[in-house]
Amino acid sequence: MSTLMSEACPRCAHRLETISISIPRGAGGYRDLAGFEATGYRCPRCGVGLIPGPVVQELMKALAVGGGKSERHRRGTRLACPGCLGNLDEVLLSWSTTFVEIEQCPRCKAMLLEAGEFPKVFVIEHEAKG
Ligand SMILES: [Zn+2]
Ligand SMILES: [Zn+2]
User: Fold this and answer.
1) Could you tell me the distance, in angstroms and rounded to a whole number, from the CA of residue 46 to the centre of ligand 1?
2) Nearest to 63 by CA among 36, 30, 89, 39
3) Which ligand sits closest to the CA of 106?
4) Ligand 1 centre from 32 Cα, in Å?
5) Strands 111-113, 123-128: parallel, antiparallel or unpaired by DSSP?
6) Which residue in 19, 100, 113, 119 has the most C-beta neighbors within 10 A?
């Protein structure tokens, strides 16, 4: 089951795989979200992670991340959002002492994280093939 309009990686076009994600315990503003779990996607070739819009919106209810005061800049990219095929924006998020550069869809709120940035925000619990 997929909630995406496209299962192709926006960076390299490889098929995304489903992963289970959670929030790292004690990670700054995320401490109130211990136990949060959701389904996300990751590219097995280039390693980018994708957090679907509905998951991001659930997180944003509890966090000032992904819109609001933690957002430092926003500029358009030519990458297509796998969730809705709109264009992703480049966004710098910050909370406590953490800064993370992501791409985010202004329409469905899906987030794309580089391989190295993903562990700053999410823990990959296990990987579900297919
Ligand atoms: Zn890729
Ligand atoms: Zn989108």
Assistant:
1) 4
2) 30
3) 2
4) 31
5) unpaired
6) 113
Sign of the torsion angle spanned by Cα atoms 106, 18, 99, 65: positive
pLDDT digits (tens, 9 = 90+) for 31-81: 566 677 889 999 999 999 999 999 888 877 766 544 444 556 678 889 999
Contacts of 40 (CB under 8 A, 6+ apart): 18, 19, 20, 21, 49, 50, 51, 52, 55, 122
pLDDT the model gives residue 107? 92
Output the CA 15–ligand 1 centroid distance in Å.
Answer: 8
* 5 alpha carbon, closest ligand: 2
